[in-house]
C-alpha cells in the first residue's frame, strides 16, 4: 500500500469519529510489518482526559491482534490541516516503532511525510529506562 492509499484509509476512518465537544475529527491508518492496516478515529468523552486519539485506537487494535511491528502511519483530520500525532501518541508509537517510522500527514493539497524520530526526538524507551536504573 502506498502513502496515498494509506492516507485515504485514514480519511475513511474520519467517518467513525465521535467528537461532540471539539467537532475536530481525526482518523489514522497504521500499517503493520506484514501489511495489515488498522484504522482508528478519535473518540471524545465529556471528561477530556478519557478521550481516545485515533492513533492510539489503531495501535490498540493492532497490538490486540498480536502485531507489534509497524511499517508506517497516516493521519488525517476533517480540516485536512496537516495534523500530526500528539506527543502522547508519538510516545505510544515509539514503544513499537523505530525512529524512522514514516508518518504521513494529510494536508489539503499534499501529503507531508515525517519520520517518527523527527516528531519525537530523544524518546523515552526501554533502553533509556534501563540506563537510568544503572545510574542510580
Model description:
By secondary structure, this protein is of the alpha+beta class. It has a single domain, classed as Cytidine Deaminase, domain 2. It contains five helices and five strands, in the order H-E-E-H-E-H-E-E-H-H. Strands 2-1-3-4-5 form a five-stranded mixed β-sheet. Strand 3, helix 3 and strand 4 (102-107) form a beta-alpha-beta unit. It is an enzyme of class 3 (hydrolase). Belongs to the cytidine and deoxycytidylate deaminase family. Zn(2+) binds at residues 86, 89.
Helices and strands in order, then pairings?
Layout: H1 3-13, E1 26-32, E2 37-41, H2 54-64, E3 70-77, H3 87-96, E4 102-107, E5 110-115, H4 116-119, H5 126-135
Parallel strand pairs: 3-4
Antiparallel strand pairs: 1-2, 1-3, 4-5
Cofactor: Zn(2+)
Protein name: cytidine deaminase
GO cellular component, one term: cytoplasm
Amino acid at each position: 500500500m502506498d502513502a496515498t492509499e494509506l492516507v485515504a484509509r485514514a480519511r475513511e476512518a474520519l467517518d467513525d469519529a465521535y467528537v461532540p465537544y471539539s467537532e475536530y475529527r481525526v482518523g489514522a491508518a497504521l500499517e503493520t510489518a506484514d501489511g495489515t492496516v488498522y484504522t482508528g478515529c478519535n473518540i471524545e468523552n465529556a471528561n477530556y482526559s478519557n478521550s481516545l486519539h485515533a492513533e492510539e485506537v489503531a495501535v490498540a487494535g493492532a497490538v490486540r491482534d498480536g502485531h507489534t511491528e509497524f511499517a508506517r502511519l497516516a493521519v488525517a483530520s476533517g480540516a485536512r490541516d496537516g495534523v500530526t500525532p500528539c506527543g502522547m501518541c508519538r510516545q505510544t508509537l515509539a514503544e513499537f516503532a523505530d525512529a524512522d517510522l514514516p508518518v504521513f500527514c494529510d494536508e489539503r493539497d499534499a501529503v507531508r511525510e515525517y519520520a517518527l524520530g523527527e516528531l519525537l526526538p530523544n524518546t523515552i524507551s526501554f533502553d533509556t529506562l534501563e540506563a537510568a536504573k544503572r545510574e542510580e
